């Protein structure tokens, strides 16, 4: 998967791709990252990339000209046309289904907004999808992009050591994952639940399912409602 990121803060991404699964994906050639500094596409001597909003009000907008220039340049020879994603609080809320879908994309461009966002004409012309990573407002799109790349890349076949472990992840089947334990059997008087030591696979399966149901009902009843609706 080729991922290009348009940002005013390329250094935000320093280190993010140097660890764990993302590093493994880069080293294996499964993931290629290219950063574009939007400021390099400003055409005035002060490298201005933002401007006031028509209609007034506080907060600046990213100007359209540098973005149009940048998109023209980086998509000129790209066939098929890459999927362009704009992280924004106004977007559809990102979830595991979307991460799974993105993991199948060959070429994605993420456009990081700042300030009050970007001129709508850039969105109309270039953006295919707008995603929010949650109901809160961030200072810019960079953190959202890091989240989306991480969630999508781990679902590319070969990136996770054991893809079976993703099958029990939270949000699969609209349930939260259950509790997990490793050695030792007892620590500071805290004991691993007996059923997990029993070797009785069916009972272990039932226990895990009941813990998942309990947690989901308590913390995310909306997920159970989603199951009922589908
Ligand atoms: N940019 C600012 N807030 C955001 C959010 N909640 N999700 C994605 N991008 C954002």
What would you say this structure looks like, in words?
The chain has 230 residues and is of the alpha/beta class. It has two domains: 2-153, SPOUT methyltransferase, trefoil knot domain (Alpha/beta knot); 168-229, tRNA(m1g37)methyltransferase, domain 2 (Trp Operon Repressor, Chain A), CATH 1.10.1270. Helices cover 34% and strands 17% of the residues. Strand 8 (186-187) and strand 9 (190-191) form a beta hairpin. Helix 7 packs across helix 8. The longest helix is centred in the C-terminal third of the chain and has 19 residues, at 201-219. Adenine is lined by residues 87-89, 132-134, 136-138, 141, 144.
Give the key terms.
8 helices; Trp Operon Repressor, Chain A; two-stranded antiparallel ribbon; 5-stranded parallel β-sheet; binds adenine; 230 residues; Alpha/beta knot; alpha/beta; elongated; 34% helix
Q: What is the topological layout?
A:
Layout: E1 2-7, H1 20-27, E2 32-37, E3 50-51, E4 61-62, H2 64-75, E5 83-93, H3 96-102, E6 107-111, H4 120-126, E7 129-132, H5 142-153, H6 164-167, E8 186-187, E9 190-191, H7 201-219, H8 221-229
Parallel strand pairs: 1-2, 1-6, 5-6, 5-7
Antiparallel strand pairs: 3-4, 8-9
Bound molecules: adenine.
Adenine (ADE) binds at residues 87-89, 132-134, 136-138, 141, 144.
Order of helices and strands: EHEEEHEHEHEHHEEHH
The CATH architecture category of the largest domain equals 3-Layer(aba) Sandwich
Helix content: 25-40%
Shape: elongated
CATH superfamily of the largest domain: SPOUT methyltransferase, trefoil knot domain
Low-confidence parts lasting 5 or more residues at pLDDT below 50? none
Total number of beta strands: 9
Structural class: alpha/beta
First-last Cα distance: 31 Å
Mean pLDDT: 96
- Helical element count? 8
- How would you characterize the largest beta sheet? 5 strands, parallel
Q: In oligomeric terms, what are we looking at?
A: single chain
Bound molecules: adenine
Q: Tell me the name of the CATH class of the largest domain.
A: Alpha Beta
